[in-house]
Amino acid sequence: MMVQQLSTAQNSHKATAYILKILADPTRLRLLEIIQHGEHNVTALRPILSIPQPAVSHHLSLLKDAELIVSRRNGRKIFYRLNSKHVWTNPQDGSLEVSVGSLHLRLSKLAHNGELSQAAAIPAVQIETNMAALTAIRT
Asked: Is the CATH number 3.40.50.920 carried by domain 2-138?
């Protein structure tokens, strides 16, 4: 039983680290902020981000693999939006909330240029994790 608990805790930590790695990229944060305001396709996102189409597609693929966004096909175009199971807009302050497994993040509102708001000298990121996984390791 202890081995199973440890394995579950380790898998939880790997999943948490994976989501944090995905969110550590400024372009992916910008994509989430843009998509937060409605569905977009690669053609619309490319000029906003000022990066090549293959790079936009790559970042979208990583966000989709992490289940932070979902897509729908309309003819030949694919539109991307936030996966409401894991990512949503906080109605009080417009910040992005990300909740996957035992990880819950609150990302400060991003400015239109994709930079963190100048109002906060230090980026406002709150991280909560399920401490039961850590308890399983200690016992």
From this structure: no
